[in-house]
Amino acid sequence: MTMRTMTDAGMDVTVKPELTLPVNSKRDHCLGPDDAPVTLLEYGDYECPFCGRAYVIIKRLQEYFGEQLRFAYRNFPLTQVHPNAQQAAEAAEAAGAQGMFWEMHDMLYENQDALDLPSLREYALVLELDMDRFDMEMMTQAHAQRVREDFMSGVRSGVNGTPTFYLNSLRFDGSWGGTRLMTTIEELIEGNGRRRNTPRRRRR
Amino acid sequence: MTIKPKEAQIASTSSAITQGRPGPDFCLKTTPDQVVTLREFRGRPVVLVFYPADFSPVCGDEMTLFNEVLPEFDRFNAQVLGISVDNVWCHLAFSKDRRLRFPLLSDFHPKGDIAYLYGVYRDEDGVAERALFVIDSKGIVHWSYISPIGVNPGANGVLAALESLSMGDEQYEEIKK
Asked: Which of B1, B3, B59, B151 is catalytic?
């Protein structure tokens, strides 16, 4: 799907649901090799129940595809409906600053009903983070800018809710709850990262 | 009430008002005793967001997203208005639930009249399309887009349209000098 319109000024505004900020392991939290044929990027919100369900599915996909799949995660907190989403995202980034992003990420998704500040501190303690640094960064909102950058990159790439997935930079509009996501990744791997032009029969 | 021709059913995805044409004015209820007109926003861009129904079953729905991106629209001094055929009481409940910080307009009676005027009424199921309109400060449609009904269009198209609009305005000011 492509949005294409000509504006008054005769300017061509083309808006594709395509990633405007490519996944980069120097910037992004990634699991899996950089040269994996498929990169799955999620824009997620730690307080969103749908993301909580997707968390389990992603784990399975990672197990299934192994080194063939690189998974990346960016923050997309919907702060008006999820009052703790922003601080949870900042806590994940604060843990990330100490090399423990994924450990905190898992902790948050496994405890979605407790994302208040005292709980976040508890998780940081369990992960044996440097608490002075964690507290300081949370208090000064040291990672708010990064979370905002994630959020805006999502908005400009056509993120339309949480979770939103991108497969090799293209928004995945199918349902992620069933097998569609898995079969699409399979197809991408078989097609060496490019989507096939011709439809092929689905394996059952 | 306007009579809806049969063609609207077939060509529902290609009939949206396109750029360069004036956005039809409306006077719609936003609460039981308040109305909103398009005219009152002359002088600033308006983002009209037509959507099928309140309380979509996903938490990251279109209205929630636009609500979250509101500070970006503010940078362009743009007013966001949501429009569906739901009645004001439903809008109030939805708005409260999602903590929306922009008005929802009720295109309830005669049902879907404004959606129809904008060419985005779905006769087959009696709701508005997922359609976006960016209307400039003079009331002229600058950009419009209809998304497949099941796909939330996101906010990037609107932001790009507002950017091109503000750029156009600046160029316009330059020329006037």
From this structure: B59
